[in-house]
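[User]
Protein folding is very new to me. Any chance you could explain this protein sequence and its structure tokens? I have pasted everything here:
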Amino acid sequence: MTFRQFLSILVARKRMFFAVMLGVLIPAVVLSFVLPKRYTAVASVVVDVKPDPLSAIAYQSLMTPGVIATQIDILQSDRVGRRVVRALKLTEVPQFREQFQNDKNGEGDIESWLVDRLQKDLDVKPGRESSVINVSYKAADPRFAAGLANAFVQAYLETAVELRTDPAKQYSNFFDVRAKQAREELEKAQNKLSAFQNENGFIMTDERMDVENQRLTELTSQLVLTQSLSAEASSRQVQANSGSGDKLQEITSHPVVAALRADLSRSEARLQEISARLGDKNPQVVELQANINELRQRIDAEVKRLTVGVNVNGNISRQREAQLRAEVEAQRARVLRLKQVRDEGAVITRDIENAQRNYDNIMQRQSVTSIESQATSSNASLLTSAAPPIDPSFPKIPLNIALGIFVGGLLAVGVVMATELRDRRVREIDDVRELLGLAVIGVLPGANSKRSAGAADGVQGQRLLGHTSSPKAA
């Protein structure tokens, strides 16, 4: 079918076409004016993605669809709906109570019924590629629609604050208990260290150990020196006791012994001189011999006396060595005990440090959670408030008229074409060619037709549109 044939069919059945189209358009227009008007009020909130000033943590994932979807679910939750019902005191409105009685016969919870009814007219949609959430509400009264949209937004903001502060309050209470326990553990460890220091008379400082180690070093040095002196004294004592004490340096260098030996040498020299000259029987020689013997006896006595002193010095050196050795052992034992006490005290000190660190961490977390529990805002903020709309969102008369024309036109075309298929008629020269399969030589004009020139192929013809009888073809 050509477009020309299609137009000829529509023109031939124009009454049916307009009747069907008006049959659809008129009810659509009437319904558009008859249906009750509904108004849509829109409010919007924005989800903030800036760092949290309390916890200093940037919410990097707030722009993800999952987080925005979570915020939308919160907006549409029963918790927010119940907060709206309670804030507006809708359960006390007689109209709603009457509708609840008629709908549920007084059975069930009117608050839950109101929440379900309000959620049916609530529409929450996220902004395109943004963190803005649009909250719209439909109602017959524009002011009521705006009030409900703003109420839902306000309830959502309050609920968002609660969802943030409630866990923080629970954590704050938890950290309060843990802080008390940590403080008790810290005080217990400090008291244990104090009792340990009082019991051992030891202060946990490195200065005490330095002093004791220095004293041990000094005593060890003195012991080494004393051992050297004692060994030397022992050697002299052995030499003295073996009969060679007169050869000891301290004896030979003694002034008395040296003076006596000098006198003895002089006396012996004089004795040799006199005895050679006077003889051995001379009284002078005998007297001088007696003096020499006396000098020798005095030297021996003095040597014995000095030898006793050497023995005494040796005994004193050995006693001093033994005393220093005992002091060194006592000091070494004291240092070892102090090291042991210091190690035990270091364990207690580490317990105190761990308890202090644990207490500081808990107090830091408790301070943060305490501040968060007192927060009055969340990461969502009001962007725009809903205002009572002027024009209704339903029904949309221009749109309904356009849809009525479009649907009515389609339906009218369908009806016309279906009727034409059931009752096919010749309305164009092309119809003759298709039905008879013959070429058209000419067309006779109708009784009321006017001749028109300019037909294709030099043939003059008259359109057959609107004629009740078929034209005669030659």
Summary: Strands lie at 39-47, 122-126, 132-139, 380-384. The first helix runs from residue 3 to 12.
